[in-house]
Amino acid sequence: MAQPPGQQQPPEKPADAPKTLPNSTGTNGAGAPVDPKMYVMGPEDVISISVFNEPQMTRTEVVRPDGKITMPLIGDLQAEGLTPERLKAQMTQALSTYVKNPDVTITVLAVNSKRYTISGQVMRSGPVALVLPTHVFDALSSVGFRDFANTKKIVIIRGSKRIKFNYKDVLHGKHLEQNILLEPGDTIYVP
Questions:
Q1: DSSP per-residue string spanning 9-20
Q2: Across residues 84-89, what is the average pLDDT?
Q3: Beta strands 126-129 and 115-120: pairing type?
Q4: How far is Cα 141 from Cα 144, in angstroms, rounded to an integer?
Q5: Does an H or E element contain 129, and which?
Q6: Are strands 115-120 and 187-190 parallel, antiparallel or unpaired?
């Protein structure tokens, strides 16, 4: 289809572009921004590395399962367990041998390492990135329920623990202690 004069077609997403989860921070603008001083990176997180005036060093990297990324000149660097600020400091120090006063910027593009899963009688099931502290009620409110969902007998599966959650009670201001913060790896099941 021909475009009207003066209008550009939006760029297509490359086939090998990193995958982002719902509510993750991504190039599509979904989700909350990551605090570079607080967020601790993990495997599968997608980061952008920019070195001012060094285009061959500017790249997008996915933190590997072993927790590392690979950079030209300096090789493998540990990223898992570090904040973007800490990785920036380590990368700046490592690059200073090769580049005079390197100006490094690290940005988390997609949070894929910390996630919870919602399943059962909900409108949108599947993994969700855990970018910000999220309570069970908020997580469920964002996905919606199917017609026959039993919102009084929801279960949060956390390892070998099973935690009961009654959505209707919390909605009406009762038993608010059950509205716990989600942790990476939690599964919310709605029967």
A1: PPPPPPTTPPP-
A2: 96
A3: antiparallel
A4: 6
A5: strand 126-129
A6: parallel
Put the strands of the sheet holding 59-62 in their side by side order: 59-62, 46-51, 104-110
If phi over 0 gives left and psi between -120 and 50 gives alpha, with beta otherwise, what is residue 36?
Answer: alpha
CA distances for 164 relative to 34, 78, 161, 184, 187, angstroms: 30, 38, 10, 18, 12
Q: What's the rounded mean pLDDT across residues 118-124?
A: 96
The backbone region for 64, taken as left when phi is positive above 0, alpha when psi lies in -120 to 50, beta otherwise, is beta
Q: Which residues of 69-80 are buried (b: 16+ CB within 10 A; e: fewer)?
A: bebeeeeebebb
- Cα–Cα distance between 105 and 36 in angstroms, integer? 10
How far is residue 43's CA from residue 133's CA, in Å, rounded to a whole number? 19
Burial class of residue 14 (count of CB atoms within 10 Å of its CB; 0-12, 13-18, 19+)? exposed
Q: What are phi and psi of 177, to 5 degrees?
A: -65, -20
Q: What residues pair up with 78 in beta bridges, in sequence order?
A: 68
Lowest mean pLDDT among 9-13, 29-33, 48-52, 173-177: 9-13
